[in-house]
Design a protein that fits this description.
The protein is α/β, with parallel strands linked by helices. Helix content is 21%, strand content 35%.
């Protein structure tokens, strides 16, 4: 009887361990039959979101105003914060990693278009980016 109880306990522990291993596959780099995640598509047609300069956005922009900016991301400031520059000025932008173009790198020399909204507060003003598109 003791043998059966210990065998059942060992089997339960192995089953629990197998469940944990399956639920947490981090670090596994071997082959997988799991479906691959598909990157979401991006619309590239015309837009009614106004194209603005940094100066126009800073001078006349309202909090939560949606806008497009074209220029360059010139530096990384940490914590998803970057400095964006066009011919009229600079603004701090917040860009989540998933908002960059999938599979592409962006250098400080690469022209980009940012779509997002202005976050205008009493102590800080920044542009919260929803999408980064590389420009030719």
């Amino acid at each position: 009887m003791r043998y059966i109880a210990s065998t059942l306990a060992a089997a339960a522990a192995m089953a629990l361990g197998a469940t944990v291993a399956i639920a947490q596959p981090s670090g596994y780099t071997g082959p997988s039959n799991a479906p691959k995640a598909v990157a979401p598509g991006t619309y590239t047609g015309p837009s009614n979101v106004p194209l603005m300069t940094v100066k126009q956005l800073l001078d006349t922009g309202r909090d939560d105003q949606v806008a497009r900016l074209q220029g360059r991301i010139v530096s990384f400031e940490g914590d998803e914060r970057y400095i964006f520059e066009d011919a009229t000025g600079r603004i701090t932008v917040e860009i989540d990693n998933e908002d960059f173009p999938p599979g592409q790198t962006v250098s400080a020399e690469q022209r980009v278009e940012l779509v997002g909204e202005l976050d205008k507060g009493l102590r800080k003003t920044e542009f919260e980016v929803d999408r980064v598109t590389l420009l030719p």
